[in-house]
Amino acid sequence: EDPFARGTPEPDPIPGVEDVVLVASGKGGVGKSTVAANLACALARRGRRVGIVDADIYGPSVARMMGTGQGLDLDEQGRVIPAHSHAVWSVSVANALPPEAAVVWKGPLVAQAVMQMFREVAWPDLEILLVDLPPGTGDVQLTILEQVPVTGAVIVSTPQRLAAVDAERGIAMFHDLDIPVFGVVENMDAYVCPCCGERQRLFAEGGVELLARRRHVRYLGGIPLDPGAQELADSGRPLVVAAPESEAAKAFDRVAEAV
Ligand code: ADP
Question: Which one GO biological process term can you cite for this protein (predicted)?
């Protein structure tokens, strides 16, 4: 690992944090936040010390999914104390702002707010800090890649062709910037019948696997559509915690094992 490989100096480490892992997607609504929350819980259940930064400033949902409150507590040094739920530490812009605030933010303010979630937080010692990125390849991504030492990225896509095309664009951006891509997660790849357990594909099979092969990244596995996911997300308990025996929870655990 050559610190000069990127041609620019490596950003300062986040104190206490070993690895920063981005959870990214080309499109919104593919389940990136769901994957981030469940992956974090699955890693924590495997004994890893995990945190999440909710950097999806235009649609922050980690606080809701992880069931953390609205408030924001500060320590004596004025640093944010991360919320702690399901054995995972998390920080979200949603905790600091009313829901309507983010949409009117201008670029520099966004960059500043995002960086505060990394550097002005009293993180405990963490092995992995997952980052729920906004969809696409915009300013927030570039700010983070510039200012945070990123270990790698996990890409989330759904099976539809258009989602995979946008996911590929995301992979290309990370590769251009010499950020390792750990692999692609295919969310909502199938429906498992709750009565008989039969697994039905919802869209044509193989697009995301093909994309992974074409870009030389790992296919980390598929997560079935789980009708309970939405309700559980709204109740602040990710599937991995609330329904660990479900097919989707087991699939998330396999991704956690692979990451
Ligand atoms: P993104 O972060 O990519 O915008 P979300 O994680 O917010 O996407 O998910 C979008 C919607 O899809 C949410 O309502 C979520 O509950 C639902 N969802 C995501 N993954 C699954 C799944 N595997 N099964 C069922 N619903 C899911």
Answer: iron-sulfur cluster assembly
**Structure confidence by residue, pLDDT tens digits, 4-20:** 565 567 899 999 999 99
Query: Which candidate, 92, 87, 209, places its Cα nearest to that of 159?
Result: 209
* Residue appearing with tokens 């920063």: 20
Cα torsion for 155, 160, 162, 165, to the nearest 10°? 40
Domain boundaries, the chain: 17-258
Tell me how far the alpha carbon of residue 106 is from its chain's centroid.
23
Q: Which of 23, 13, 32, 12 is nearest to 179 (CA)?
A: 23
170 annotated as ligand-binding: no
Lowest model confidence (mean pLDDT) among 41-50, 71-80, 211-220, 238-247? 71-80
170: exposed, middle or buried (Cβ count in 10 Å: 0-12, 13-18, 19+): buried
Give domain 17-258's CATH superfamily. P-loop containing nucleotide triphosphate hydrolases (3.40.50.300)
Measured from CB, residues less than 6 Å from any atom of ligand 1 are: 25, 28-34, 59, 61, 187-188, 223, 225-226, 229-230, 233, 248
Q: Please check if 222 is assigned to a binding site.
A: no
How confident is the model over 75-112, as pLDDT tens digits? Answer: 999 999 999 999 999 998 777 666 666 556 667 778 88
ipTM: 0.99
Instruction: Give the residue carrying structure tokens 């924590």.
Output: 44
Does 32 show up as a binding residue in the annotation?
yes
- What pLDDT was estimated at residue 166? 93
- CA-wise closest residue to 37 among 79, 77, 1, 90: 90
